[in-house]
Each structure stands twice: as structure tokens, then as C-alpha cells.
């Protein structure tokens, strides 16, 4: 069981009785399946128990864009969407997934017992969601391809607490997440290897230099 979500540490005992609060419905999805679409009418919270999920949309040229990615322990609210005509945001299973579905109204309303675990889950979701959105915005605002990569690596390195880590996304999907050309991204990663800034072995990255300097 995940014990920490977005910096808010959850005790294992906090998860005891969560079913009593939320009464979730568990569903399983195969790799590549569409889980659900975002809509103001979609009164749903998704709690990922296993697997990796992408939030994606298509741009004006019908090219896929990865808005965010979610892993075990993440909570997704599917009824909060930006005002956009004819734009569809949808969740898809990158890997085989197991997901709990909870009514948004149950998630946001305190249960009858006003239990601390319920409040901690909501607090953890708000903190992690805000942190994830700010991180992606910061990455996209970088002016060069190298800066985008270095900023992304710095966030992952800080999250994992070590200089060597595995990317949470395949490289082809990372290009979509960064909104860059994949071939150009691969050339930049090769240059960074040659300049001894990083060592990359497919999805395994070792940061040699201090990227914060």
C-alpha cells in the first residue's frame, strides 16, 4: 500500500476503513484501453491501485499530447476540465491497471464519522495535484529543449531522492509530455551524454552534474 502521496505521509492505518468512507467500485483495464473522459458531468474520482495512466488530448493538428501521467497511489478528479470547445481530455491505460472509482460528491463530503483518514486523503490529493501541475507548467515554460529535459530530470531526481532513476515514461511518450520533437529530443540526450551531464541507458538516467546549479 502506498504510504506517501505528494509529500503528505499516510499511515497504513489511514487506509483501514476507506471502503466504508468512499464505497469504491474496482475495475481493471488492459494496456491501451480508454478508462474515461473528462467532463463536468463525470461525477467520478479515480484512485489508481496498480499501473500507469495517461491524461491525454489531441491538438488542432490531431497530434496526441500527454497532459499528465499517474501511477499507483495517485487520485484523479475527472469532472474538473478547462473551458475548451470540441476538445476531449481522456484517461487511458498505459499499462494494465486496477482502479477504484469513487463518487466525487462522496469524496469531497466528510463522512458521518468525520474521520481523520478521509481528511488526510483529500489533503494529500490537493497537495499532489497542485505540485504536479506546477511542475509540468515549469517544464513547458523552459525556452530550450535541453532546459526542458534538465528540469524534468531534476524533478524526478528530487522525487526519487537519488541521482540514478528510471523515467516514468517511455522516451516516445516523454517527447509528447514535453511537447517536443522526438528525434530532436534523442539528439539532445545524446549530446548530454557526450558532455558528461547525464548517462542514459534507455529509460535509466544517471545525473552526473548538479542540475540545480
UniProtKB/TrEMBL annotation:
**A GO molecular function held by the record:** DNA binding
Checking Pfam families in the record gives:
cNMP_binding
Keyword line: DNA-binding
Query: What protein name applies here?
Result: DNA-binding transcriptional dual regulator Crp
Recite the lineage of the species.
Answer: Bacteria, Bacillati, Bacillota, Clostridia, Eubacteriales
Amino acid at each position: 500500500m502506498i504510504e506517501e502521496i505528494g509529500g503528505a505521509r499516510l499511515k497504513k492505518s489511514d487506509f483501514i476503513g476507506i471502503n466504508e468512507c468512499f464505497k469504491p467500485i474496482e475495475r481493471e483495464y488492459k494496456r491501451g484501453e480508454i478508462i474515461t473522459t473528462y467532463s463536468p458531468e463525470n461525477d467520478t474520482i479515480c484512485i489508481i491501485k496498480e499501473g500507469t495512466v495517461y491524461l491525454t488530448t489531441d491538438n488542432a493538428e490531431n497530434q496526441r499530447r500527454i497532459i499528465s501521467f499517474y501511477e499507483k497511489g495517485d487520485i484523479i478528479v475527472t469532472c474538473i476540465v478547462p473551458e475548451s470547445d470540441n476538445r476531449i481530455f481522456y484517461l487511458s491505460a498505459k499499462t494494465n491497471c486496477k482502479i477504484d472509482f469513487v463518487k466525487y460528491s462522496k469524496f469531497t463530503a466528510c463522512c458521518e464519522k468525520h474521520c481523520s483518514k478521509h481528511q488526510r486523503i483529500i489533503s494529500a490529493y490537493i497537495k499532489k495535484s497542485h505540485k504536479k501541475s506546477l511542475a509540468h507548467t515549469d517544464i513547458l515554460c523552459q525556452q530550450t529543449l535541453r532546459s526542458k529535459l534538465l528540469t524534468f530530470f531534476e524533478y524526478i531526481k528530487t522525487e526519487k531522492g537519488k541521482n540514478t532513476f528510471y523515467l516514468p515514461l517511455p522516451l516516445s511518450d516523454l517527447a509528447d509530455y514535453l511537447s517536443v520533437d522526438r528525434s530532436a529530443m534523442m539528439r539532445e540526450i545524446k549530446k548530454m551524454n557526450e558532455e558528461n551531464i547525464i548517462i542514459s541507458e534507455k529509460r535509466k538516467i544517471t545525473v552526473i552534474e548538479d542540475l540545480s546549479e
